C-alpha cells in the first residue's frame, strides 16, 4: 500500500495518556504507545481488557475522553480521509448476505468516489487487486451466503483494501475458524505486511500470525500491562473469546446498512 502523505519519519499511530470509552465512561485509561509505519502490532489480553476499545478509537467507533490520539499525523477526530484507516470487523457484523463478493468489496471504494467522480477503471482495478491479495479472484459473482467463514473474512479484508488504506485494523481475524482457514487468513496478512501495510490486530492469541507480529501491547483491566516482543504466553492466548462492546456492534451494523443502498444506486457495478 502506498502512503498518501509523507510520514516516513513519523509514527502512524500515537496515543498519549489516552482515556477511551463509551458515553464518557473510560474503558481504557492513560494508554500511551505508538506504532511505526510498516509495523505489525497485536493488541492482546483477556476479554474485557480494552483491546477492542483501543482499536475502536482508531476506527472512529469509540470516544476519546481524555489525552491524545493521533492517526496518520492528525488528531483522530480531525482525520478527514477516513478511508486511509481500514477497519476489518468480525464476519458476524455483515447483515446482508445476499450481496455478491464484488458488491461487498466495491463498497470499500465508495469513500474514494463522489457524484462528480463515479467509479472508473482505476477504482475497478483497485477492487480487483484487493480480491487477488486475499486469494478471492474468481469468486466475484458469488453471493456472501455461499462463502465459507474464512472466505467471508477474506472478503471483509478485501473490502477494506479496496480503498488502498495506509493502516489496517483487524478484529480477531483468525478466531473461530478451522486450521486450514486460519492458515489461509494468516497468509493473506503476511502478504499485506510484506507489501508494506501497517497492521494493528486484536487477538486473544497471536499463534496464527506470529510470523508477522513483531510487537505485542497487552492490556488488563483497561491498562497497558506489557509492551514489547511477543511472549510465549501470547502465542496460545488466555482461553477467552473476544466480544464487541454493544456500541461497536451498533456502528458496524449501521455502516453495513449502506451496502444494499450502494448496490442499488449502481455505484458499485
Summary of the model, kept short:
By secondary structure, the protein is of the alpha/beta class. Helix content is 30%, strand content 23%. The strands form 2 sheets. It has a 6-stranded mixed beta sheet, sandwiched between helices.
What structural class do the secondary elements suggest?
alpha/beta
Largest sheet: 6 strands, mixed
Order of helices and strands: EEEHEEEHHHEHEEEHHH
Find the count of extended strands (DSSP E, 2+ residues): 10
Low-pLDDT regions: 1-7, 238-266
Averaged pLDDT: 83
Spatial gap, N to C terminus: 24 Å
Shape: globular
Radius of gyration in whole Å, from Cα?
A: 18 Å
Task: State the helical fraction.
Answer: 25-40%
DSSP summary: helix tally: 8
Report the sheet-strand fraction. 15-25%
Amino acid at each position: 500500500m502506498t502512503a498518501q502523505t509523507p510520514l516516513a519519519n513519523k509514527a502512524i499511530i500515537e496515543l498519549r495518556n489516552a482515556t477511551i470509552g463509551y458515553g464518557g465512561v473510560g474503558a481504557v485509561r492513560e494508554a500511551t504507545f505508538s506504532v511505526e509505519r510498516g509495523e505489525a502490532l497485536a493488541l492482546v489480553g483477556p476479554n474485557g481488557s480494552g483491546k477492542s476499545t483501543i482499536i475502536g478509537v482508531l476506527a472512529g467507533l469509540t470516544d476519546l475522553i481524555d489525552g491524545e490520539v493521533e492517526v496518520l499525523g492528525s488528531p483522530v477526530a480531525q482525520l478527514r480521509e477516513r478511508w486511509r484507516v481500514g477497519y476489518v470487523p468480525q464476519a458476524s457484523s455483515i447483515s446482508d448476505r445476499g450481496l455478491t463478493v464484488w458488491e461487498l468489496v466495491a463498497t470499500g471504494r465508495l469513500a474514494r468516489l463522489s457524484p462528480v467522480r463515479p467509479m472508473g477503471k482505476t477504482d475497478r482495478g483497485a477492487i480487483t487487486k484487493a480480491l487477488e491479495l486475499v486469494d478471492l479472484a474468481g469468486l466475484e459473482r458469488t453471493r456472501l451466503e455461499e462463502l465459507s467463514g474464512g472466505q467471508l473474512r477474506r472478503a471483509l479484508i478485501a473490502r477494506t483494501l479496496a480503498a488502498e488504506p495506509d493502516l489496517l485494523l483487524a478484529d480477531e481475524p483468525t478466531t473461530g475458524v478451522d486450521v486450514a482457514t486460519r492458515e489461509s487468513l494468516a497468509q493473506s496478512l503476511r502478504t499485506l505486511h510484506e507489501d508494506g501495510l501497517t497492521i494493528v490486530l486484536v487477538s486473544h492469541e497471536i499463534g496464527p500470525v506470529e510470523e508477522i507480529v513483531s510487537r505485542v501491547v497487552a492490556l488488563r483491566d483497561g491498562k497497558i500491562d506489557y509492551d514489547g516482543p511477543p511472549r510465549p504466553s501470547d502465542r496460545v492466548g488466555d482461553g477467552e473469546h473476544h466480544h464487541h462492546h454493544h456500541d461497536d456492534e451498533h456502528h458496524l451494523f449501521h455502516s453495513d446498512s449502506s451496502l444494499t443502498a450502494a448496490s442499488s444506486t449502481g455505484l458499485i457495478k
